[in-house]
Design a protein that fits this description.
The protein contains one helix and ten strands, in the order E-E-E-E-E-E-E-E-H-E-E. Strands 2, 4, 5, 8, 9 and 10 form a six-stranded mixed beta sheet that branches. Strand 4 and strand 5 form a beta hairpin. The mean pLDDT is 96.
Amino acid sequence: VQLQASGGGLVEAGGSLRLSCAASELTFSSYHMGWFRQAPGKEREFVVAISWGGGRTPYVDSVKGRFTISRDNAKNTVYLQMNSLRPEDTAVYYCAAARTAPPTYFSGSFRSEKSYNYWGQGTLVTVSS
């Protein structure tokens, strides 16, 4: 199984980036997908998740209204559209796949790294002020 994240880069505050995470050797439509991020000197934190069908998308409060997660099961890819970027969004962004029963996952376990079976390698997003 491989999750390949891409799309990171350097952007000015207020700008936009679109991250992608392509999955291989995985029954993609059977997995919920999540994005996490790790800022310099900080622990990795949950950003957003999407259910295997795309119908549920819980976000961390700090990105609501600015970030949008989506997925294309035909392409085995999940996306993170990031708008109105802020310097505090600077981090390495990781995608992850979770095969958890929906009631358990959406009761809150989507926030926990332990819920995820597979992880991508991370892509760096740097937002300059």
